[in-house]
């Protein structure tokens, strides 16, 4: 006696089946088939999406090298900005006056950075002759419209073999003859530090702002980048280059796939293309493609810049090369990657719809969107008003309220209880009390509760709709299992579209019977549909509770199969069913 097959054993333990439904409602069948097509599209794209994200993030992390760059940046910050050097006790971050700047500049910075210019510095007494002499020096560039403004000159100190005595003397003359005066707004210092062992370039940009009230604000920006990312003597560069090549291949594949969908599957009709996949889905796909193509082009162009080539060809530090263009290229590339990451995060949300819980959650998000969009203008107007009020009340005494963007962020923090209002409450008196109390009432009580009411009402409404849909699905179809999901993903696009066309063609029928569906399918679809596809699709709806037709398949209706394919295909299918029936009868 042969053992029962596993599917027969599992079926024998089931509750006696319900009778086969006489017909399936046409509206339910059409909606369910469209959901299955969407599930198939998302499932197939999900695999490519996961592969793309893994490769992209791996290449990006190898290129940015956050851990290695952070070590280099921390070393530069500690040695250059946080540690007093030479005879000076002033560090860069503590500069608060012009005298502090000159002390740090001459006694700390010039101890490690020297000038490579051998020409005389030249002095000025404000006359035209002295200004012309300054302008004629190679190490200066004139940058203002006022010819009597000596603060418009900029100087470069270059690292060289000199001991720094001449450079220090020039800096003393700069201080003596008022290189920094009341008209000076900003002093910028740019340095390029190259580490040949790590093969990284550190671009240090220091800025000291002088405001009209006499305040001094130092700021620093340090960029660490790989000057030779395609030096294949380094194994890490080889691995990253391979990942980048696969990344480029993925982007090209996605672009060709979307062009194929527009030109072939949709027949060049944009309306059909939008109706087929959805407007926001198409916008997201094309935006993702455009941003990734921009990253590829910008990455390629950044490796061909003249500044990078000059840096690589540099043999002596006597020549000054401005590294700021490299910083600009890298900042824009970083911005493109940031946009791409945020876009991929938003795109990942739609793939949650392949699960039941994810579909319900995303429906709640989409359902609440109209109410949320009407709520946001009111919320932003209140944010703007309270930000201006906070900026006027506390901008002079608190640095976190000194600018309007900072004030907006403080109000946003106050909205969620992330900002401690104690200091501003003690400082502002009655005005602070009004600002804080009314802000808490408006944000924490009114706005937050209105937003929660919108979300909860939408969730309850969708829960009722989901309960009705679940009851309808339980009555007229069966839940997709793992094998059903894999089968649906493997189905041809034409076969899935044909099923939806059949449901649309039967729009006049309130209930669609099994035979009526099979006849319409055979008349509409010119392709020969395999018998297992027919039995699987019928098993989703009409044969879902028929053990003889779905689990065992012993007494399948020949009329349903006769409408598909040739007589040989029908005979082959019936032979399989007869063999399975004989084996099952032998075991009993």
From TrEMBL:
InterPro entries documented for this protein: PKD1_2_channel, Polycystin, Polycystin_dom
Primary localisation category: membrane
A single cellular component GO annotation: membrane
Membrane topology reported for the UniProt record: Multi-pass membrane protein
Superkingdom, taxonomy of origin: Eukaryota
Transmembrane segments: 45-62, 242-260, 332-352, 372-394, 430-455
Keyword Membrane attributed: yes
Claim: Ribonucleoprotein is one of the keywords in the record: no
Residue stretches making up the Polycystin domain: 150-222
Subcellular location as annotated: Membrane
Domain Polycystin cation channel PKD1/PKD2: 242-460
Keyword entries, A-Z: Membrane, Transmembrane, Transmembrane helix
Entry similarity comment: Belongs to the polycystin family.
Name of the featured protein: Uncharacterized protein
Originating organism: Phytophthora ramorum
